[in-house]
């Protein structure tokens, strides 16, 4: 009985880093798909979850908060244990191995070089439909002061580009999007992340 229940989908517990940014929107998406979503405010909560979403927000603020709450080392361990991480927008900036310009990268968990606020002032926020590798139809992508990926290492699978710039990618158990899948009705990026967790 117990082992059967453990396979029930609601037993997957997906965390959303809850220090700043689009936290509730992600929790809502996880719940809509029938899974348990937990707002993560302390590093010891990482032990309870099967995967973690690093939401959009302001990456400079986020990294300061992550440092002061002691998240840096525990997140490296979380990733070393092959627990999946999904970074959207600022979350993607935090996962990058390199940042364009003088700013030092933060977690350096994914072999991507990221340019922040990359689409310029005129295009602070916009929505486009994009073909995504593995999806059978285009995805509505909402960009807000979005970064893009300038280059990737050979472990990285490019999932989507917009105007020649990489805006979604995957490396082993890490998924990133420059856009905000939590702001559209389309659940496919969350479904993809959940598949990565179940693997
Ligand atoms: N919507 C977002 O997450 C914006 C990201 C922000 N421009 C940054 O670099 O931190």
TrEMBL record:
<keyword id="KW-0663">Pyridoxal phosphate</keyword>
<dbReference type="GO" id="GO:0042823">
    <property type="term" value="P:pyridoxal phosphate biosynthetic process"/>
</dbReference>
<feature type="active site" description="Charge relay system">
    <location>
        <position position="180"/>
    </location>
</feature>
<dbReference type="Pfam" id="PF01174">
    <property type="entry name" value="SNO"/>
</dbReference>
<keyword id="KW-0456">Lyase</keyword>
<dbReference type="GO" id="GO:1903600">
    <property type="term" value="C:glutaminase complex"/>
</dbReference>
<feature type="binding site">
    <location>
        <begin position="57"/>
        <end position="59"/>
    </location>
    <ligand>
        <name>L-glutamine</name>
    </ligand>
</feature>
<feature type="binding site">
    <location>
        <begin position="144"/>
        <end position="145"/>
    </location>
    <ligand>
        <name>L-glutamine</name>
    </ligand>
</feature>
<comment type="subunit">
    <text>In the presence of PdxS, forms a dodecamer of heterodimers. Only shows activity in the heterodimer.</text>
</comment>
<dbReference type="GO" id="GO:0004359">
    <property type="term" value="F:glutaminase activity"/>
</dbReference>
<feature type="active site" description="Charge relay system">
    <location>
        <position position="182"/>
    </location>
</feature>
<dbReference type="GO" id="GO:0008614">
    <property type="term" value="P:pyridoxine metabolic process"/>
</dbReference>
<protein>
    <recommendedName>
        <fullName>Pyridoxal 5'-phosphate synthase subunit PdxT</fullName>
        <ecNumber>4.3.3.6</ecNumber>
        <ecNumber>3.5.1.2</ecNumber>
    </recommendedName>
</protein>
<comment type="function">
    <text>Catalyzes the hydrolysis of glutamine to glutamate and ammonia as part of the biosynthesis of pyridoxal 5'-phosphate. The resulting ammonia molecule is channeled to the active site of PdxS.</text>
</comment>
<dbReference type="InterPro" id="IPR029062">
    <property type="entry name" value="Class_I_gatase-like"/>
</dbReference>
<feature type="binding site">
    <location>
        <position position="116"/>
    </location>
    <ligand>
        <name>L-glutamine</name>
    </ligand>
</feature>
<keyword id="KW-0378">Hydrolase</keyword>
<dbReference type="GO" id="GO:0005829">
    <property type="term" value="C:cytosol"/>
</dbReference>
<dbReference type="GO" id="GO:0036381">
    <property type="term" value="F:pyridoxal 5'-phosphate synthase (glutamine hydrolysing) activity"/>
</dbReference>
<feature type="active site" description="Nucleophile">
    <location>
        <position position="89"/>
    </location>
</feature>
<comment type="pathway">
    <text>Cofactor biosynthesis; pyridoxal 5'-phosphate biosynthesis.</text>
</comment>
<comment type="similarity">
    <text>Belongs to the glutaminase PdxT/SNO family.</text>
</comment>
<keyword id="KW-0315">Glutamine amidotransferase</keyword>
<dbReference type="GO" id="GO:0006543">
    <property type="term" value="P:L-glutamine catabolic process"/>
</dbReference>
<dbReference type="InterPro" id="IPR021196">
    <property type="entry name" value="PdxT/SNO_CS"/>
</dbReference>
<dbReference type="InterPro" id="IPR002161">
    <property type="entry name" value="PdxT/SNO"/>
</dbReference>
């Amino acid at each position: 009985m117990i082992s059967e229940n453990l396979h029930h989908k609601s037993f997957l517990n997906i965390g959303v880093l809850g220090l700043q940014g689009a936290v509730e929107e992600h929790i809502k998406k996880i719940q809509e798909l029938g899974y348990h979503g937990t707002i993560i405010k302390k590093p010891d909560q990482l032990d309870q979850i099967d995967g973690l979403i690093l939401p959009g927000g302001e990456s400079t603020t986020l990294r300061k908060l992550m440092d002061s709450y002691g998240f840096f080392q525990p997140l490296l361990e979380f990733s070393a244990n092959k627990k999946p991480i999904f970074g959207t927008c600022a979350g993607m900036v935090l996962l990058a191995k390199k940042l364009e310009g003088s700013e030092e990268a933060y977690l350096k968990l994914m072999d991507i070089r990221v340019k922040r606020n990359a689409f310029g002032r005129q295009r602070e926020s916009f929505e486009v439909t994009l073909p995504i590798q593995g999806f059978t139809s285009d995805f509505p992508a909402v960009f807000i002061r979005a970064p893009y990926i300038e280059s990737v290492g050979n472990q990285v699978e490019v999932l989507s580009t917009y105007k020649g710039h990489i805006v979604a990618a995957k490396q082993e158990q890490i998924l990133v999007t420059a856009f905000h899948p939590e702001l559209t009705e389309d659940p496919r990026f969350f479904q993809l992340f959940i598949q990565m967790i179940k693997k």
